[in-house]
Design brief:
By secondary structure, the chain is α+β, with helices and mostly antiparallel strands. It is 27% helix and 25% strand.
Length: 365
């Protein structure tokens, strides 16, 4: 198979989380010279496959074969790769079977490398992500197999292929506030304590407010209100309590401590409860590391573009890799149709991504 044939085959494998659509078995067979280790957990399929060419560093390519459900109203069969007008349509074309196909094909064609090359693949990135990459990393750590550097092939480019890599990600703090009041009759508001009245004048100083100024790599941590509800859906009873949910995509400058202090300052004098959870923690790979310099070199060689170093966007499994002291970046095709109906990417981008990964392997040593 060439890269496009491999990519189309992968699109044709229905692999909605936590199914791998048979792809991990296929990749294991497709790379017969590599040593395969399966770390399956319950219904999640995980594969680590590697080959030691020499005594040098260990470079790993990581990603997921699972995709979100296709949804309705596609113009084509979402689980059949349809090529037209230079595009290939199908669920997972951008997120992220393009990346999986590109690095799988690149590794298949490697003849020489002064070190170890590997793939880390899971079928649990789009789901709860508790039995996927995390479990493989635990295994690698316990068996002295952790890589020195990892490229996660998530879609990262913005306007054109090659224009952006992710050198980090913001964290995600989820907040749940309950404001306490006293239920009463709407005709006698003075006899109750309406939590809506308590919170309303405070919201202007909370909703959409930046908790820090950001820095060269991170945009500011913003307090984003995502849900407010109170009452019993009747017009003659004032509510006993109000519940508000919020999210802060936090930089390295803001932690749960600062979020608690922000809420306390703005809700002073009000009876409330606050619960915080951390979905992921912020991280950034130093741009002076070998990994960033080499991926920049490879991208520029293929595309003539010097990519910007970004931390924007949501989360990826890179958040599990960075805390282990492993350098990690993300690079893939454009991300303008991820998770949408009629998800698509271009033939040129898939071929370009494959070429970038081949070039990275070539210039690594």
């Amino acid at each position: 198979m060439n890269i496009i044939e491999l990519f189309k085959y992968m699109i044709g494998c229905k692999s909605e989380t936590p199914s791998d659509g048979g792809l991990l078995d296929f990749i294991e067979e497709y790379l017969p010279d590599f040593t395969a280790i399966r770390v399956d957990v319950e219904d999640v399929k995980n594969l680590f496959i590697y080959k030691k060419f020499g005594e040098g560093e260990h470079l790993c390519f990581a990603g997921h074969v699972d995709v979100v459900p296709a949804g309705d109203n596609w113009d084509t069969n979402p689980y059949e790769a349809v090529e037209k007008d230079g595009y290939i349509y199908g669920r997972g074309t951008q997120d992220m079977k393009s990346g999986v196909a590109a690095f799988t094909q690149a590794l298949k064609e490697v003849e020489d490398f002064d070190g170890t090359l590997s793939l880390l693949l899971t079928s649990d990135e789009e789901g709860e992500a508790i039995n996927g990459t995390v479990k493989v990393l635990e295994f690698l750590q316990n068996n002295d197999l952790l890589p020195d550097a990892v490229v996660v092939a998530e879609p990262t480019c913005e306007e054109e292929f090659g224009d952006a890599i992710k050198v980090g990600r913001r964290g995600s703090i989820n907040g749940y506030i309950t404001v306490h009041g006293k239920q009463g009759h709407a005709a006698y508001p003075e006899k109750g304590i309406n939590p809506v009245n308590l919170i309303a004048p405070r919201l202007a100083n909370m909703a959409g407010v930046d908790l820090d100024n950001g820095d060269e790599y991170f945009s500011p941590s913003k307090f984003v209100v995502t849900d407010i509800r109170a009452g019993m859906q009747v017009t003659n009873v004032t509510p006993n309590e109000l519940k508000m949910m919020f999210n802060v995509r936090n930089t390295t400058l803001t932690s749960q401590k600062e979020v608690r202090e922000f809420v306390a300052k703005n809700l002073e004098g009000i009876s409330y409860d606050l619960r915080l959870t951390q979905g992921s923690y912020p991280f950034r790979t130093d741009t002076d590391t070998k990994l960033v310099k080499k991926i920049d070199e490879a991208i520029e060689a293929v595309t003539s573009l010097r990519p910007k170093h970004s931390t924007a966007g949501g989360t990826s499994d890179a958040r599990f890799i960075a805390p282990l002291g492993v350098d990690v970046i993300e690079f893939g095709v454009k991300n303008d149709t991820i998770h949408s109906v009629n998800e698509r990417t271009t033939v040129a981008e898939v071929e370009g991504l494959y070429k970038v990964f081949k070039k990275l392997i070539e210039v690594w040593n």
